[in-house]
Amino acid sequence: MYIILIINILYNLKTANKFKSIFSQIDDPRSDINKLHKLEDILLIGIISVICAADTWKNMETYAKAKEDFLRSFLDLPNGIPSDDTFNRVFSSIDSEQFESSFIDWVSGLVNLTDGEIIPIDGKTIRGAKSKGKKSPFHMVSAWASKNNMVLGQVKVSEKSNEITAIPKLLELIAIKGCTITIDAMGCQTEIVTKIIKQEANYILAVKDNQKLLHQDIVDEFRFGTTIDTHLHQDLGHGRIETRTCSVIKDFKFIKDDNKWEDLKSIVKVESVREFKNSNKPLETATRYYISNLSINAEAFQKAIRLHWGIENKLHWVLDVAFSEDASRKRIGNAAQNFSILSKIALNLLRKDTQTKQGIKGKRLKAAYDDDYLSEILGIKV
To answer: pLDDT digit string (tens) for 140-169?
Structure first.
């Protein structure tokens, strides 16, 4: 029994050291005189408490005090549990870019990206962090690995900028070789296309009137083109029937060979019709256009474009519902940005558990109550 205990302690220390090494590049913003607690202990308690449904600094302190014996099995805690004020000060002041970089490095060792994996990129505003009378500066752009079901990384959009400048920065930080990047119309920019191609990845980008000439050329192609591959798909459920027709043209007549869109091979149109059963609501129709360097059939494009919405349903929606991100009032310094990273780390670890038949919110509560389950999530032994 004693030998097993020693083995478990050593294993837990090794696991904790893995986490600590991930964050070793983060500079400690505190002066030496104020360092009662180790930075790595604060960061790890932050991650663990967020996994266990802590959504405020006070929740972090309350959870950590209740689980101090458990935490001491792999953390030093030389001066006990940090206070909520300490958590607030540290996470508000640590360098967010360093924290984001550490997060991306950690995720790269967690996921197994395969050729053709769809990686949607999209932005989300943390609305609760908006200061009165000011435009909210907390807008994050994230990348989502559809097959792995995990967040690959995030970057904050600068206050005086938009997603157009943030997306290339995010692409530089993540490994995307062989994958397919999907982005909404905001990201339909030649610089972004060039960046994707340079990293040996593929693109499917939505096109709207922000690219008027391209949009009109695509409309003309589908109006007069004859060599069109099509695929029809129907979804039935939630009292509605949605029919989506995907059409693809690869033999262009209106888009010149010397167009500015690097390696453009296909243009795509998706027409959707939504009917409501047992309701007098009128039909809802929509037509969307896309460009891509892929030369695949309409059925494959239909699937890839549909997967793009996974970043809304499986990331943004979950962050709001299971992590209450939109209701967060964290505004001081880098608090909102860094807490968003904590939430995404927690989400990735909880997503790795495919055996527990509960939603993310239920898994968080189970981890808070059940040390054995939390140990499985963290990869430690009790």
So the answer is: 899 999 999 999 999 988 765 678 889 999
Tabulate helix, strand, coil % of the chain (nearest 5): 45, 20, 35
- In the block, tokens 């967020």 appear at 50
Q: Which burial class, exposed, middle or buried, applies to 94 when counting CB atoms under 10 A from its CB (0-12, 13-18, 19+)? A: buried
Q: How many domains does the chain have?
A: 2
Same domain, 50 and 166: no
Spell out a b/e string for 312-338, using b for 16 or more CB atoms within 10 Å of the CB, else e: eebbbebbbebbebeebebbebbbbbb
Q: Classify residue 367: in a domain, yes or no.
A: yes
Please indicate, yes or no, whether residues 171 and 278 belong to a single structural domain of this protein.
yes
Tens of pLDDT, residues 98-134: 998 889 888 888 888 888 999 999 998 876 545 555 5
Is the CB of residue 376 less than 8 Å from the CB of residue 353?
yes
Rounded to whole angstroms, the Cα distance separating 47 from 342 reads 6
Q: What CA–CA distance (Å, rounded) separates 38 from 42?
A: 6
- The DSSP-derived string for 125-168 is E-GGGPPTTS----EEEEEEETTTTEEEEEEEPPTT--HHHHHH
Tokens of 157: 């959009």
Per-residue confidence (pLDDT) for residue 9, from 0 to 100: 40
- Domain assignment present for residue 326? The answer is no
Is residue 246 within 8 Å of residue 230, measured between CB atoms? yes
Residue bearing tokens 């500066």:
137
Residue 202 sits in the same domain as residue 348: no
Structural domain boundaries, residue 208: 102-317
